[in-house]
Amino acid sequence: MFVLGLDEGKSELYARLLQRPESGQAVPLGTVRSVPNTVKGHEQLLAGLMKSGVGGAGTAVVMESTSVDWERVAITLHEAKCHLSVVNAAQIKFFCEKYGKKRKTDKLDADLIARSGAMRHPARSTAPRGRAGRTPGAAACSGEHRGTFDR
Questions:
Q1: DSSP code of 109?
Q2: Which of 26-40, 63-77, 97-111, 123-137 shows the lowest mean pLDDT across its residues?
Q3: Which value, in Å, is the radius of gyration of the alpha carbons in the chain?
Q4: In which residue ranges is the amino acid composition biased (Low complexity) (predicted)?
Q5: Which of 124, 117, 127 is nearest to 92 (CA)?
């Protein structure tokens, strides 16, 4: 199984991909990568996952719900049929404190979010909803990747 930890900012997304073996600790795959926090950047993130051969039911994507910046990428990942878990930032902070880790950079945060997801297995989230049941930012999200992780 794979776990992708996302730390989002207003201008960039930082992503850490881990492989979680049946037993033992999660193993980082490559380095923490960043893409623009735009529709195009979200598409680059999905394309990178596909190129790496990961995705679908075997990959859990974990991200924090901070401000409203997380909604666009969450919608894109949800539309791509990713196993998405949006967690409260306080849960990640608690995880870091419990294991003596300090969050200092976006890259480190992405790694810690992935490691938290690998250990805690957070529940799958539904797509975010805006006012009157409408999905915020849905018009800005591309449907090109819909179902690309399903094989």
A1: H
A2: 123-137
A3: 14
A4: 126-140
A5: 117
Please report the pLDDT score of residue 142 as a whole number. 31
Q: Give the containing element (helix H, strand E) for 19.
A: strand 12-19
Give the burial class of 81: count Cβ atoms within 10 A of its Cβ; 0-12 exposed, 13-18 middle, 19 or more buried.
middle
Tell me: the pLDDT tens digits for 88-139? 888 888 877 777 777 668 888 899 899 888 888 887 877 666 433 334 433 3
Q: In whole angstroms, what is the distance from residue 63 CA to residue 17 CA?
A: 12
Q: Which residue ranges form the domains of the chain, and what is each CATH number?
A: 2-128 (3.30.420.10)
What's CA 106's distance to the chain center, in Å?
13
Please give the model's pTM, rounded to 2 decimal places: 0.76
Q: How many CB atoms lie within 10 A of CB 93?
A: 14
Select from 133, 92, 140 the least CA-distant residue to 112: 92
At 58, give phi and psi (nearest 5°): -85, 0
Q: Which residues contact 19 (CB under 8 A, 6 or more apart)?
A: 1, 2, 26, 27, 29
